[in-house]
Amino acid sequence: MIKNSMILMLCLVLIGSFFGTGQLAQAVGEGPNYNGNETIKNERLHSYDEMVNFLEKVEKRSDEMTLEVYGQSIKGRDLYLAKFGEDEDNPTVLFLTQQHGNEALTTESALEIIKYLTNNSKGVKEILENINVLIAPRLNVDGAEGDVNFSLEDYVSGTHTRYNADGFDLNRDHVNRNQPETKALHENVIQKYEPDYMIDFHHQGTQTTLGDTDEYVSGSILYPTNEGVDPDVRERSKQLGAIVYNAVDAKGYGLLSKYRGGTAPTISRNGLALEYGIATLLFEMRGMADHYYEPYVLGQKSNGYLIQQGVTAMKAVLESFVDGSIETVDTSFWDTLPESGSKGEEFEDEH
Ligand SMILES: [Zn+2]
């Protein structure tokens, strides 16, 4: 039944794209642009081994970064945390990426930021004098490798999946922590280093629009919306979002909507704010590396600007602790920021 409706939806989408408006000029305006039957080329992304090699190499030549293994995945892959600074008087920010294995570009952004933070520049020195930075790239290391205990034959590329090796959604596991990846993140990163701020980086489908306009967004953001979250924590979360919004909005490719998200504490945006008082932001980038629902999959054309969008967001947040704007930035844009709309058929609300 589910399968049938999926096929029907796929047909509708295919018909839609056949008779559709064709290619738009601007990068953000394009729909799924891998052309449907072309092989998705994900080789440009760091594989797990390449990511580990990169992290180890950077640690070897850097005085600022400490690399830590904070746990293991179901398939026994080590989970890595890159740490910068451990000054108790400074606030701590955590950048988390790829809880969903098929949401890959945000990890590329995180690796770029790791490179940036080890460049010994004056700007970086200032940042690290003011804030401790934790970067946890790719929580779902098994799903990102496609090394899982279920078939990926329905997937467009067959290389990445949202779920961990046992088919669980890690971003629905932040209360019970039944999965080794989420358990390790909570016990060995969050409870140990007590971050004050956290951005959780994801990807959504390719068809999300700014409100009911025709404009495709480059991303969507949201603060914790669970009603139990302390109002001060929510306000600091909105400030975190304002720093990100202002930085991304200033870029030519940047167009953000307000993510339409739920209140469940099992997702990190709500759960971490509720349980630990961490100011959180969800940042959803456009398009996925792989999915069984074709319109979610983004080809290669937009990868560069989406990686940059993540870098821009992270850098802006780090710099906001140098000039103090994280505590003074105006959050009123949230009241007028259009919510996400959708042009095509949305498969379901799972991001
Ligand atoms: Zn996600």
From TrEMBL:
User: What GO molecular functions are on record for this protein?
Assistant: metallocarboxypeptidase activity; zinc ion binding
Ranges where the Peptidase M14 domain occurs: 44-321
Stored SMART domains? Zn_pept (SM00631)
Listed Gene3D superfamilies: Zn peptidases (3.40.630.10)
Q: Where is the active site?
A: E284 (proton donor/acceptor)
Any one GO CC term of the record: extracellular space
Its required cofactor(s), as named, are: Zn(2+)
What PANTHER family is this protein classified in?
Answer: PROTEASE FAMILY M14 CARBOXYPEPTIDASE A,B, SLL0236 PROTEIN
Q: Which family does it belong to?
A: Belongs to the peptidase M14 family.
Protein name in UniProt: Carboxypeptidase
| Native organism | Chengkuizengella marina
